[in-house]
Amino acid sequence: MTVAALIENEGRFLMVQERISGKSVYNQPAGHLEDNETLVDAVIRETREETAWHFEPQSVTGIYHWRHPEKDSTFIRVSFAGKGLFHDPACELDSCIERTLWMTPDELRLQPDRLRSPMVLRSIDDYLAGSCYPLSLLTSLD
After folding, report:
1. For residue 70, what pLDDT band results from cuts at 50, 70 and 90?
2. Is residue 42 within a helix (H) or strand (E), and if so which, with residue range?
């Protein structure tokens, strides 16, 4: 189970360039849900750890199922749209993050082999198409 943050600013999206299995790829700020954590808490934490941005989730863009074609792994990703509240330059980034950058959807489309997964561009396209579900869609029974 993973989460991802979609933060748009003037047509550009906050992205991370990260090194995974020796390959440099683009992804949204994203990561795995940890034990005793809500999905909303997870996306806030992952965004801060990977970009040093404090994130306010405002809606769910989509829930995506993807099976990695070369690994025996299946992913369920919940993508959240929201605001980047502020950047904290004193915050140390996760070690796999090479840099953060703002990219347009067209810049990402030109480099499909550099995307971490097809969920990256699909969630941006869904966001741009107006996909927007309330956070109340996600219910925690704890």
Report:
1. confident
2. helix 39-51
Q: Can you give the pLDDT at residue 142?
A: 76
Q: For domain 2-131, give the fold.
A: Nucleoside Triphosphate Pyrophosphohydrolase (3.90.79)
99 three-state secondary structure: strand
In tens, the pLDDT along 19-59 reads 988 899 999 999 999 999 999 999 999 999 999 999 999 99
Cα 95 from Cα 31, distance rounded (Å): 13
Q: Report pLDDT for 21.
A: 85
Instruction: Enumerate the domain spans of the chain.
Output: 2-131
Rounded Cα–Cα distance for residues 73 and 91 (Å): 31
Measuring CA to CA, which residue among 76, 24, 85 is closest to residue 51? 85
Whether the model clears a pTM of 0.90, i.e. scores above it, the answer is yes
3-state helix, strand, coil in the chain (%, to 5): 25, 45, 30
**Phi then psi for 66, rounded to 5 degrees?**
-145, 135
